[in-house]
Amino acid sequence: MTFKIYTKTGDKGETSLIGGTRVPKFHLRIETYGTVDELNSYIGLVIDNVSNEHIKNILYDIQNNLFIIGSNLAADPQHSKMKFPELLQSDVELLEYEIDVMNETLPELKNFILPGGHTTASFCQIARSVCRRAERLTTHLKSESEVNEIVIVYLNRLSDYLFVLARKIAHDIGAPEIPWKPKF
Hints:
- This protein has helices at residues 28-47, 53-74, 89-104, 119-144, 149-173, and strands at 14-16, 22-24, 113-114, 178-179.
- It is elongated, with a radius of gyration of 18 Å.
- By secondary structure, it is mainly alpha-helical.
- The strands form two sheets. Strands 1-2 form a two-stranded antiparallel sheet. Strands 3-4 form a two-stranded antiparallel ribbon.
């Protein structure tokens, strides 16, 4: 018997949360974990464009953590009996450590910079902006439903990591940082 990827159960615009609850596909919980999935895809794009093995390994760890976040967000907190892995404080601390290490080699940031300068750095900036959206949606969801606080902390720190990673990648290859020049 061949497993089919399509089930046709969502053809009328509804889907099931883990736990069986049916919700519209535009439900805030679906938007939230869908955005985490989008972020994970952009992280994959970054991985495909970096050669540094340490950075790749950190990004793979991040992807695994995003799967943890997505599975937790996909579960109906009132009806799901499934146990999922949880994020740990050490996951947040790893991002902070990596940010600090990268910042040691970067010039001081004296003004806002525009996304761009190099394709891989730009992919990091896209991932960062999707991460910020995931954080906003998760915060909104937390105002209405149960969400583990560490998820919001992790997404907040991850967007910082992606910003610094974009700068690090650009710096390492000699790509320019493009300063924002406000018109006053």
